[in-house]
Amino acid sequence: MEDENEVSQELLVYVDQLRPFQGARSTKRPYRDRDELDDAERTLEAAGIQFTGLQYRGNQDPPDCEAIIEGVRCGIEVTELAHERALRASIKATRAKEGFVRYHEWTREEFLTELRERIAEKDSPTDLKDGPYERYLLVIWTGEMHLTQEVIRAYLDGITFPSSLITDAFISLDYHPGSDNPYPAIPLDIVGKALTE
User: Fold this and answer.
1) Which candidate, 156, 174, 178, places its Cα nearest to that of 81?
2) 0.85 cut: is pTM over it?
3) How far apart are the C-alpha atoms of 3 and 28, rounded to whole Å?
4) CA distances for 195 relative to 12, 165, 169, 190, 192, angstroms
5) pLDDT tens, position by position, 130-183
6) Contact, 14 vs 27, CB < 8 A?
7) Number of Cβ atoms within 10 Å of the Cβ of 166
C-alpha cells in the first residue's frame, strides 16, 4: 500500500507542475528533460525514421539527445515554439485565478520569421559537444492553438531553410485526436548553405 501512495504522491507532484495551456508542458527541469526526450522519440516515430539508442544527454547539451539512425550517431536538438507574450500573460492570469488564457493567431510572416530565427540559433551552437555528428536533427515542438497541421503546411509551402549543421528539421505538434498520427511531425525543407550561396 505504501508503494501505491508513493506513486500517487509522485503523480500529484508531476501533474501540479504542468502548465495547463499551450500544451501540457513541464515547468520543472527534470520533467522538462523527459518532455524533450519524448518529443524526440515521437517526432522520429511520426517521421518514419528508424532509430536505436535514443538517449537524453543531460548537462552535455547541445544537442539535447542523440540516437543511432541508419548506423550513425546523430544529434537531436529540441526546442519549443510559443508566443512568449501570450504565454506569460496566460501564466500570470492562471496563477492569479483571474482573466483568461490568451492565444496568439500567427500570421504567415510572423511564423516564418520565428522559424528562421530559431533555426539560425540552433544551427550555430557556440558549444556543440561530442561532435561531429553525421546528421543533426532539430525538433521544434509547438502546442500553439492556431498552428494546426493545415495552417503550418500552408505557411511552409514553397519555403526552404538554409543551414550548415542541421540536416533534418521537423515541427512536432501536440496531441491531435482523430489524426492518422496522434503526434504529427511536419518536415521542414532544409537546404545546405553551400547549395544556396
Assistant:
1) 174
2) no
3) 24
4) 51, 13, 17, 11, 5
5) 888 999 999 999 988 788 899 999 999 999 999 999 999 999 998 777 777 888
6) no
7) 22
Q: Give the DSSP per-residue string, 94-109.
A: HHHT-S--------HH
C-alpha cell at 187: 518536415
Residue type, 65: C
3-state SS, residue 149: helix
Measured CA to CA, the distance from residue 75 to residue 93 in angstroms comes to 37
- Half-sphere exposure (Cβ direction) of 31: Cα atoms closer than 13 Å: 14
Cell of 189: 525543407
* Omega of the bond leading into 132 within 30 degrees of 0 (cis): yes
- Structural contact between residues 188 and 170, judged by C-beta atoms closer than 8 angstroms: yes
